């Protein structure tokens, strides 16, 4: 069952954890993010299954994000949950309040972009900031035109040290999101603290 429609009723960690622990009955392909990504999200049996084109709220490693359903399929029951390749979980159908919040947060990010460009210049970072985004639960994502590495880690650390909290630095290229590297040493992990 997905969470109630009110965003306030689903903000608690316990409510989200309960949804994420439910068995997966359906897999949804959802497009989400300012630099669009398409990923697989688990969904349990719910009273109203979303349709293609519906706005939804999903739980990702970056936080709660609005997205658009592209495809819905029943789960292959023969696959164990660990083999489903899920990015996260469907939390709920997006409400008008969710969509208004997402629009307001994006306007705030657009207004803050030049300030973040100045910070990156002052910190003498060897990367190019290309966009900002905030998740519904206020996680800041900085999109940079770089590979994952020491400079993306440095940006996240400098932002935290300057009092901006945990910042997710998301590398992007002309092809879209730069995927996480598997294995390797420091700077190659692509861990969620970047």
Q: What strand line-up does the widest sheet have?
A: 1-2-5-3-4
Number of helices: 3
What structural class do the secondary elements suggest?
alpha+beta
Radius of gyration: 17 Å
Strand content: 25-35%
DSSP strand count:
9
**What is the first-to-last residue Cα distance?**
32 Å
Number of domains: 2
Poorly predicted spans: 1-10, 183-194
**Portion of residues in helices?**
10-25%
* Molecular shape: globular
Write the H/E string, N to C: HEEEEEHEEHEE
Mean pLDDT over the full residue set: 83
Strand count, sense and barrel status of the largest sheet are: 5 strands, mixed, barrel
Can you offer a commentary on this structure?
The chain has helices spanning 13-20, 96-122, 150-161, and strands at residues 26-32, 37-43, 55-60, 63-74, 88-93, 129-134, 140-144, 167-173, 176-177. It is an alpha+beta fold and 194 residues long. A hairpin with a 2-residue loop joins strand 3 and strand 4 (63-74). The radius of gyration is 17 Å and the shape is globular. The protein starts with 12 loop residues before the first helix and ends in a 17-residue tail after the last strand.
